[in-house]
Amino acid sequence: MTFSASLAPWLITALVVSCAELPDTQLKNHAGRGGGSGTGAGGKITNDGAGAAGAPLGGKGTIAGSGGIATGGSSTAGDGTGGIGGTTAVSNGGTKTGASGKGGSGPSSGVGGSAADNGGADGGAPEGGTPGNPGSGGSAGFSTNPDDFFGDSQCDDSTFALCEDFESGSLDTGTWQTRGAAPKIETTRAARGKYSAHFHTDDNGLAYITQTKTFPAPNDRYYARVFVWFDALPTAPDWAHWTISGAQAGTASDAPEIRVGGQWNTNDGIELFGVGTDRGDTGDWTNLDADPNGKPKAVPAKTWACLEWKFDGTANETQFWWDGVEHPSLATSSSNHGGSSDPFILPQFGSMWVGWWLYQAGTTPPSFDVWIDEVAVDYQRIGCNH
After folding, report:
1. Do 91 and 49 touch, CB atoms closer than 8 A?
2. Which of 203, 215, 314, 385 has the most CB atoms lying inside 10 A of its own CB?
3. Half-sphere exposure of 270 (CA within 13 A, CB side)
4. Which fold has domain 146-378?
5. Delimiting residues of CATH 2.60.120.200 domain(s) in the chain
C-alpha cells in the first residue's frame, strides 16, 4: 500500500492503526483466491473511493470515500475473499472503513463485492471491513506447472458443485455408492491434504464409487477434475483396457457409458490415456492419446497426475486435459470419434463414477492399486491448481 507524501501525519497514523487492528484473518493478510485472470484489477483511486489495482491473489483496495466502492481485483479461480475496503475517507466521508468484497467464486472472471456504506459525514472511528456480497466466478489462471497443484486441500474454500477431498478419513456414503470393494480412505499418500481413496483389484476386477449429486447438469454439460496415482499399469494381455471414470444416463450397469481411462498399446509398447464409450450407438471404442504432435507420453506410474475432462451432452463433445494441458487427439464430437460411422450422441447424464475397472483377464501385474484424490465436479472448467 502506498500513500501520497502530501497526506497529513495524523491521517497516515490512522491508516496504519486501522490496518493493524484488523483481525488475524485472510482479510488482514491477503486477498484470498478471487475469481479471475491472475492479474486482477481493482479500480483507480477516485473521489468516490474505488479500490486500487488488485494483487495476484485477489485485489486489495486502498482508500474508500464516503460509502465508497472497494472493488476486489480478479485473480485465480475459486472461492476467496476479495480486496480489503479502504481505511479512511479522502473526500466527504468519515473515517470508517468500507467493507471488503468477497472474491469471485467458481471458474470465470469475477469482481469482488461493493464496499459497505460505512462512511459518514460525522466521521466514524476506523474499523475493519466485513465481507460484502460475492462477486461472479472466474475462468482464468489455469496452471500447467505441477508445482502449483499440490499442498493443502482446497475443498473447504471451493464453490464447485462437488469437491471430495476424503479429509474426513472415511467415505461419505451420503454422496458415494460403491461397486466392488469399497476404497480405503487412508494416509498412505495424498495429492492434497492427508487422505486419499485407495482402490485395490485383482486381475480384471473393478472397484469404484458413483455419485448422482451433481446431476442433472445445466445444459447437460459438466467438467471433472481428479488427481490419480497408478502404482502399476497393465502390460498384458494385449491391448489391456482400463477406465478411471465413467458417466451414464442413470446408474444401471448396462446403460451406455462415456469413459475416461487408457489402454496398453501392444504395437508400440506404451500405456496411453484414452476416451471412448461402451454400449452406445457407436459401439465399444477408445481413442488413444496422440499428443503432442503424434508423440504421446506414456501414462505415468508412481506419481500423481491431474486429469480433467468435459462432457457436453448438448453439443455432443468431449475434451481432455492432462496436468493442465489439453490433448486435442482425445476431443470427440458427434462426427469425429472412434467406433462405427453412426453419430456419437452423448446421454442425458445422471451419474458419474471414479475408481478402477480393467476389462480383460490374465493381467500383468496380477493386481492393481490406484489412489484418487480431490475429485471436483462443476459446470465450468476447474483446473489443476484450484
Report:
1. yes
2. 385
3. 12
4. Jelly Rolls (2.60.120)
5. 146-378
